[in-house]
């Protein structure tokens, strides 16, 4: 699954620079995650870095975008040009 940022986001700006795939950007009101770029940090780290740094715990799994670890790794390989 990719991750999503909820309305609890306080726009603290700590998640965006932590994303190795550039999936996080400023939306109209809060930060947003591009599900096409989010790999939950698979291929880069053992845990999603945005979740690790978020001070308000507002970055859960996006239940609407179910992906296996293998699918996330495939996406990582495509994004990084290692496919």
Give me the secondary-structure topology.
Blueprint: E1 24-26, E2 31-33, H1 49-53, H2 69-79
Antiparallel strand pairs: 1-2
Structure description:
InterPro entries: 4Fe4S_Fe-S-bd (IPR017896), 4Fe4S_Fe_S_CS (IPR017900), PSI_iron-sulfur_center (IPR050157), YfhL-like (IPR047927). This protein has one domain (16-79): Alpha-Beta Plaits (2-Layer Sandwich), CATH 3.30.70.20. The chain has helices at residues 49-53, 69-79; strands spanning 24-26, 31-33. Strand 1 (24-26) and strand 2 (31-33) form a beta hairpin. 25% of the residues are buried. The protein contains 2 helices and 2 strands. By secondary structure, it is α+β, with helices and mostly antiparallel strands.
Q: Which properties best describe this structure?
A:
transport; YfhL-like; 19% helix; metal ion binding; alpha+beta; Alpha-Beta Plaits; 4Fe-4S; 83 residues; iron; 7% strand
Can you summarize this structure?
The protein contains 2 helices and 2 strands; from the N terminus they run E-E-H-H. It has helices spanning 49-53, 69-79; strands at residues 24-26, 31-33.
CATH architecture: 2-Layer Sandwich
Give the mean pLDDT: 96
Q: Strand percentage, roughly? A: 5-15%
- SS-derived structural category: alpha+beta
CATH topology: Alpha-Beta Plaits
| Strand runs, count | 2
- The figure for the number of domains is 1
Largest sheet: 2 strands, antiparallel
Q: What is the helix/strand order? A: EEHH
The Rg value, from CA coordinates, equals: 12 Å
CATH class categorisation? Alpha Beta
* Helical residue percent band: 10-25%
- Gap from first CA to last CA: 20 Å
Task: List the total number of helices.
Answer: 2
Poorly predicted runs are none
Q: Per the principal axes of the C-alpha atoms, what is the gross shape?
A: globular
GO molecular function, one term: metal ion binding
Domain 4Fe-4S ferredoxin-type: 1-29, 31-64
Organism: Pseudomonas kuykendallii
Protein name: 4Fe-4S binding domain-containing protein
């Amino acid at each position: 699954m990719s991750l999503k940022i909820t309305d609890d986001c306080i726009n603290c700006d700590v998640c965006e620079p932590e994303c190795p795939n550039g999936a996080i950007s400023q939306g109209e009101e809060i930060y947003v995650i591009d599900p096409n770029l989010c790999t939950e940090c698979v291929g880069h780290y053992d845990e999603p870095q945005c979740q690790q740094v978020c001070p308000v715990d507002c970055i859960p799994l996006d239940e609407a975008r179910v992906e296996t670890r293998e699918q996330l790794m495939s996406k990582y390989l495509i994004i990084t040009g290692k496919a």
